Amino acid sequence: MNPEELFKNIISHSKEYGFIFQSSEIYDGLSSVYDYGQLGAELKKNLRDYWWKSMVQMHQNIVGIDAAIFMHPTTWKASGHVDAFNDPLIDNKDSKKRYRADVLIEDHMAKIMAKADKEVEKAKNKFGETFDEALYRSTNPRVLENINKANAIEARFKQALEDNNLEEVRQIIIDCEIVCPISGTKNWTEVRQFNLMFSTQIGSVSEEANTVYLRPETAQGIFVNYLNVQKTGRMKIPFGIAQTGKAFRNEIVARQFIFRMREFEQMEMQFFVRPGTEIEWYNYWKETRIKWHRTFGFGDNKHRFHDHLKLAHYANAACDIEFNFPFGFKELEGIHSRSDFDLKQHEQFSGKKLQYFDAELNESYVPYVVETSIGLDRLFLAVYSESLKEETLADGSTRTLMSLPFALAPVKAAILPLVNKDGLPEKADEIVNLLKYDFNVTTEAKDAIGKRYRRNDAIGTPYCITVDYDTMENNTVTLRNRDTMEQQRVAISELKGIMDQTASLSSLLKQLD
Ligand code: GAP
Q1: What are residue 506's phi and psi, to 5 degrees?
Q2: 3-state class percentages of the chain: helix first, strand second, coil last, to nearest 5
Q3: Cis peptide before 462 (omega within 30 of 0)
Q4: Burial 249-265 (b: 16+ CB within 10 A, else e)
Q5: pLDDT at 299
Q6: What does the pLDDT look like over 56-112, one tens digit per residue?
Q7: Within 6 Å (CB) of ligand 1, which residues are found?
Q8: Number of Cβ atoms within 10 Å of the Cβ of 491
Q9: The pLDDT value given to residue 133
């Protein structure tokens, strides 16, 4: 399956099995807004729990909060979002379609780099084991030409962003001969900045003084509460505050399913450190987070770091963890060393001191902050797209397999009475009652057993537990493993222990040690 087909398949599978629906579908949907169905909500909750537990439960110096979505409007003045939370947009005059100018340029650079990679791939196939990739990349004229071309565009683009020179950004689009994917023309408007925050009115009178924003990030709820938490929780630096919750951005070019949405969920952690130690902690969190991503078992090549081209004026280091989605490597998580910018801004705008007294140094200071910020929906898409596959079996037949890590699967076990009579369904209910306190399990009696196995493979259920006539005699069941399809006979009393070891969140958390 090529990446485009795979992506289409992911979208239709997610709808067919109740993972994700278009929002308000009966009214033809609302663009770039999605609802999670019965299985999607479970998978999303498991991902959120995994993040929360690995951040909060596994770190003695990190606590979690749940701040409101609405915040005092001055928060967003202080954070810079009112004045500078903009995207550079450009319209194509023929198709009337609007694009993010930076995305057009970045996609163009990626295409040029893909040409170089293709050339390397061809040579690799030709020369086999003796092939020296590094040497080839640094000497082959065609590869070098493309790499240099992409680097030159990158340098020019970086300069334009640093100078906030929108005319130059447009000129790069013209010079690179970038065309609108819809109309195929180069008939572009000027590049304009567009604020991404949604606003609404609080109270009954619509005056500017009553304007509040739907938060565009959860981080500010942590910053404004940092002293409350530090004092009431008697936290000592270095310490972190974690939060998960909805964020809202009026994305103009919302696209790629749940990759870029207007309403989405973030999982953020702000780590407060002594000034001067922030780069050490930034590196610590880079390592810790990539290790976390690797526990999903997708291999070492699916994630990579991407250092930011343009550092925000308050950051002294920033990178993304990118994931190889079906449409290429894209940002999944951001790790930012944000200095004392946010807290200092809030001090200035609120007139309140936000200093921490460091007893070891016997001095007060505004802490520096290292942030980790990941989109839950984007993580969902990464895990979903990597897990969904069509598998050809030994007998030549195929099955749809959702090879989710066991601990994250929406349903951990399906208890299947072989026939819908003779007390077998009641026995299945007994097993459900045994396991339901620890695991989300289901029972279903309809359809042939093979069909029920296939359906559970397609939604990622790690175990199918079959209740047959022998079960009624000796309290044993057949335990079928989703991935290997191997079946073993086990006692009902053993089930919980097996599932604890292989399908519980703690079994995944242990991999972090
Ligand atoms: N507090 C820092 C912050 O918000 P960001 O890079 O703008 O940084 C962090 O966002 C993460 O939130 C991204 O890496 C991405 O996973 C997710 N995210 C951002 N915008 C999104 C959108 N429109 N739809 C889905 N996820 C989004």
Answers
A1: -65, -30
A2: 45, 25, 35
A3: no
A4: bbbbebebbbbbbbbbb
A5: 92
A6: 999 999 999 999 999 999 999 999 999 888 889 999 999 999 898 988 998 899 899
A7: 217, 219, 249, 251, 260-261, 264, 266, 268, 331-334, 371, 373-375, 377-378
A8: 10
A9: 86
Contact 265, 246 (CB under 8 A): yes
Quick one: DSSP state of residue 302? S
C-alpha 469 chain-centroid distance: 45
The whole-number pLDDT of residue 205 equals: 65
Residue 254 has pLDDT above 70, yes or no: no
Confidence of residue 230 (pLDDT cuts 50, 70, 90): very high
| Residue 401 β-bridge partners | 389
Measured between alpha carbons, how far is 385 from 402 in angstroms, rounded to an integer? 9
Q: Whose CA is nearest to atom 21 of ligand 1?
A: 260
Q: How many Cα atoms sit within 13 Å of 116 on the Cβ side?
A: 22
Other CB atoms within a 10 A radius of the CB of residue 132 amount to: 11
Token representation of residue 497? 């222990």
pTM assigned to the model? 0.86
390 strand-pairing partners: 400
Distance 493 CA to ligand 1 centre (A): 45
Amino acid letter, residue 175: D
Q: pLDDT band for position 310 (50/70/90)? A: confident
Average of per-residue pLDDT values in the chain: 94
Tokens in use for 239? 């310490």
Q: Which atom of ligand 1 is nearest to the CA of 218?
A: 1
Give the rounded percent of residues in the chain with a pLDDT score beyond 70.
98
Pocket test for ligand 1, best of 213, 261, 264 (most atoms within 8 A of CB): 264
DSSP string, 389-415: EEEE-TTS-EEEEE---GGG-S-SEEE
Which structure tokens are listed for 358?
């460091």
Q: Which two tokens stand for residue 25?
A: 């579908």
For tokens 């009475």, the residue is 417
What is residue 187's three-state secondary structure? coil
